[in-house]
Specification:
Elements lengths: L1 H26 L3 E2 L2 E2 H17 L1 H4 L1 H10 L13 H30 L7 H23 L3 H4 L2
Antiparallel strand pairs: 1-2
Length: about 150
């Protein structure tokens, strides 16, 4: 799985770069709707990185349902940590794992296409918003369905 992710993401990003380079070459212009080729590619690199880092939380409702169905949630009754806290920090490990793979890709793209990553304050605010986004995403996906709240 690790090797698959390690190889699939760069291949997907190379294909994306080739497609957008061809689009800009066909139109024969430097900008399309105010965005240069480097800006479009950096946008998609960052989008792919963020979606790759948040894949665990998008699968969370299915995994919780699966653990409830198979009775694996009952083992958390005896443990000193709550199930929700466990799921949050377990998913945070996957998020860091995704960042370990994706941040080098973004840095490589920024050096290849001479993309400005912005000022340090912009990068710090981006990281803070990513952290808050992870927390918000987790709590949205861990919420029980409305039908369970009425019981």
């Amino acid at each position: 799985n690790f090797l698959n992710e390690l190889l699939a993401l760069p291949i997907r990003l190379v294909i994306l770069t080739v497609v957008w380079s061809s689009v800009y070459r066909v139109f024969g212009c430097e900008e399309i709707r105010g965005l240069s080729l480097g800006q479009i590619i950096s946008y998609y690199f960052i989008f792919e990185a963020i979606s790759h880092m948040s894949v665990y939380y998008r699968r969370l409702p299915y995994m919780v349902w699966n653990e409830i169905t198979h009775g694996e949630v009952s083992k958390f009754i005896c443990r000193p940590i709550s199930y929700i806290t466990y799921q949050f920090f377990y998913g945070l490990g996957y998020t860091y794992y995704g960042a370990f793979i994706c941040v080098p890709m973004i840095l490589l793209a920024s050096f290849t296409y001479l993309i400005e990553l912005g000022r340090i304050s912009s990068v710090v605010f981006f990281m803070v918003s990513m952290l808050l986004g992870v927390v918000i995403t987790f709590y949205i996906y861990i919420l029980p369905p409305k039908s369970l709240n009425t019981m």
